[in-house]
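WARN retry 2 of 3 for item q-0093 after timeout on previous attempt; input resubmitted unchanged.
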Amino acid sequence: MVNLLSISTELIEIILDYLDTSDLITLSLTCNALYRIVSFKQYGLILPKWHGLSYNVPDDRVGLYYRDAVLIGPTLYILVLSIENPTAWKINLNDKTPRWISVTVNMPDSYRPVIHPATSSILNKIYVHGGIDLLTGKPTNILYEFDVCDMQLHILTQNGTIPSPRSMHTISAIDHNRLAIYGGLCVADDCPYDSKDFATYDITNKVWTIHNQMPNLPYARSLHCMLKARDKLYIYGGQQMVSKKREVIHDDTNVWAYDIQNSKWLRYLSSTVQPLRLPPEWIFTGGWKQSPGRRVGTAMFCLRDRIAIIGGVVSDNWENNENEKPWEYLKIFSPLKKSWCHIRVQGLPRMRCVAFVGNWSGCIRKAFLIGNDADTGKTTMGWIVG
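OK item q-0093 returned
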C-alpha cells in the first residue's frame, strides 16, 4: 500500500481531482497533514481567519469611495475626486506598519468632481469612468486617466460610440490596451433605469465600441461586481430598479462570464433547476446550497483557480443571524468543476466590501478587504489569513 504522505504534494493534488466531495471529506479526516492538503486544494485556504487592522482611515471621504479602490503592486490607491481638495490616498500593504499617505491630485483645467464612478488600472495608470457629477448632481460619462507616478489627472478623448452617462457601474482592464465597462444606473427624461450596456475602450486609439448586440448578455443592473480572471470577465450580484425611487437587491443569483478569447457570454446557473434543453452558454453548477444567492455590495476575488465571493447584503437578511453568523462564509466557485463550496472565515465582521489579492509579504495573507462595517458604520479593513 502506498503512503500518500510519501509522495509529492503535486501528485496528491492530481489524485484529489478524481475524488468526489464525500471522498475528499473522508480523506481529510484521516490525519492533520491530509486535512491541510485537502482543505487547500478544495478552498485555497486552511482554517481561514479575519485579521482586522486596528488603525482608522484618516479621511471620512474614503468611506464614500472605497469601492473605487485600485491595487497596483502592493499599494492600494483610493482617488477621492471631491469638489475641494481632490486627494489620492495610498497605503503600502507590504509595510510592517502600513499607514495611509495622502497626495494632492494635479487636476486638469476642466476637472469635474465625481462620486460613484467605475475604476480600474493598467500598469501605473488608474482609469476612472463616469459617476455622478457633484456640481450638477447628474450622471456623467467623463473618462479620467490618473498617473500614480506624477499624480497627474488627465481627461481622455473619447471617439466612436460613446456610452451614455452612468454611475455605479463597473470597469475592468481586459488586456494592456483595452478597458471594458458593464451596466450601471443611467437617467433618461429624469427617470433612472438600469443598463446592460457592454462596451470596450481602446486606450491607444481612444475609441469606444458598443457590444450590445451580443447574445446572452447579463441582465441590466448596477452596484454589481466585475472581476477579470485569466481569460474571462466575471459579473455577479448588484441591485435593480423596481420604481423611479426604489432599488432592491437584484433577482439574479447567477454568475456570468465573458469569454474574452471567443467573444461570447456564459451563464453559470446557481439554482436547483433540473437539466433541460437550454442554450450551450447556460451552464449548470453543483453545490447549490453553498452558492451566494442574491447579494449587493459584495466582494469578488481570485483564489487560486477559483472565484471567491464574500460580504455584502443578502436578500433573506441572514446578516442578522447572530447565532449562525452566515456572513462569515466565503463562497467559492470552481469554473473547472462547475461547482460551489464554502468555508467559514472566523471573526469576519458584517460588511459591504471590496477585496484584493496580490504578492503579499507573508504567505498566510490571502486577501485584503476594505469596506463599511455594518455594526459600527465605519470604514474597516483587514486580511483574510489562512
